[in-house]
């Protein structure tokens, strides 16, 4: 991973931050979301030229802090052409943090 360290990524996600990253030439965003009165941690495609798609979604407890187990679960989902974020960690570049 480039741009930030893995431990920094986990800390930022736990603080409900939005992370924009690239992997294999594609842009994605991981972010907290509230939908149907439930809190979620989601990964979306973030391409400028086409409609974006939710590729992973993990329900989390409401509050100001996302627990590490929820973060690890979403990063383990095989949502990148059969591979997980964790499996592709060395190919990921963090571009922006909100």
Characteristics:
98 residues; alpha+beta; five-stranded antiparallel β-sheet
Provide a short characterization of the protein structure.
This protein is an alpha+beta fold.
Account of the 3D structure:
The protein has 98 residues and is α+β, with helices and mostly antiparallel strands. It has one domain. 18% of the residues lie in helices and 37% in strands. It contains two helices and five strands. It has helices at 6-14, 68-76; strands at 19-23, 26-35, 38-45, 54-60, 92-97. Strands 4-3-2-1-5 form a five-stranded antiparallel sheet, with helices on one face. β2 and β3 (38-45) form a beta hairpin. It is globular.
Layout of helices and strands, plus pairs?
Blueprint: H1 6-14, E1 19-23, E2 26-35, E3 38-45, E4 54-60, H2 68-76, E5 92-97
């Amino acid at each position: 991973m480039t741009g930030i360290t893995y431990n920094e990524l986990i800390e930022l996600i736990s603080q409900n931050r939005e992370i924009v990253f690239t992997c294999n030439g594609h842009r994605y965003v991981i972010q907290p979301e509230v939908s149907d009165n439930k809190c979620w941690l989601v990964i979306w495609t973030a391409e400028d030229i086409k409609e974006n798609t939710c590729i992973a979604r993990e329900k989390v407890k409401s509050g100001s802090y996302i627990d590490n187990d929820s973060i690890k679960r979403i990063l383990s989902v095989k949502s990148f052409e059969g591979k997980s974020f964790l499996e592709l960690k060395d190919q990921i570049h963090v571009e922006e943090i909100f």
